[in-house]
Amino acid sequence: MRYTYFPGCSNHSSSRDYEESTREVCAALGIELVELQDWNCCGSTAVMAVDPMAAMALSARNLALAAAGGSREMVVTCNSCFSTLRRAGQFYQSEPLTRDAVDRALGEVGLTLQKPVPVRHLLDVLLNDVGLDGIGARVSNPLVGLKVVPYYGCLVGRPKNDFDDRENPCSLERLLGTTGAVLLPFEHKARCCGGALMTTKTEVALELCRDILQEAVERGAEVMAVTCPMCHLNLDAYQGQINQRFGTKFNLPILYFTQILGLSFGLREKELGLTRAMYRRFDYARV
Predict the structure, then answer these.
(1) Residue 148 is inside which H or E element, if any?
(2) Residue 185 belongs to domain with CATH number
(3) Which of 67, 105, 162, 241 yields a CA-CA distance of 20 to 30 A from 270?
(4) Phi and psi of 225, rounded to 5°?
(5) Run of H or E including 115
(6) CA distances from 142 to 73, 115, 194, 210 (A)
(7) Residues 257, 172 contacting (CB under 8 angstroms)
(8) Helices (H) and strands (E) in the chain, counts
(9) Which of 132, 125, 140 is nearest to 287 (CA)?
(10) Whether 117 and 174 share a structural domain
């Protein structure tokens, strides 16, 4: 299986561990990820708030590059990239004024876009292209008894995707269930972590993250599985500030779902980016 891969800015910088574990897990499953050449930032939510048309043009350039390269679809791992690229493609096809403005912007750099390529989340690819049987067959180190809460965040279902329920997603539970881990019920699994509000309205974001972590601890979770670099950052790096602000004692490991899959495949910690400083809280010897 071969896919055009859009890593996004975070996977080449602050979330290199997501990039590393994604590539290792995909290689183990026989998936070839071909990185989109000359890609640029998708525009994300911050640019969208300041200049929506510029954000559309940024995403459209990536879609145009993928189409020009003969891609039939493009795979992403970041929830924000997933949402932003899909929204741009949908608006381009359904809004004539947006399409005209984007076409003019693309023309300035010698690109055209006839029809945006489909954008898929890695969750979708693993679940529906590889399949649970294929993933289960690769498990050599079952994570028996490891208690995991699945956290999707708010963007993977907006705009509505084609592979999971928007309000009550279950793809993570199904995928990670193949590892032997115990997937705990989690009412906050599709709640917002605050995203970039952590830099503008810090108190609001800290409270949102506090609520998510609180339920996870009350459920008895040993690990939280996430699918988004921003969610990972907020829920992992800010636990100290949350504890200081609210008097809590959170010390919960936050792992990318690809890292948990990789552990069950018997891949080494370094290959999965688990030797980085932020992962000191988890005892990998137990799995």
Answers:
(1) strand 147-151
(2) 3.40.50.11810
(3) 241
(4) -100, 130
(5) none
(6) 32, 43, 33, 30
(7) yes
(8) 13, 8
(9) 140
(10) no
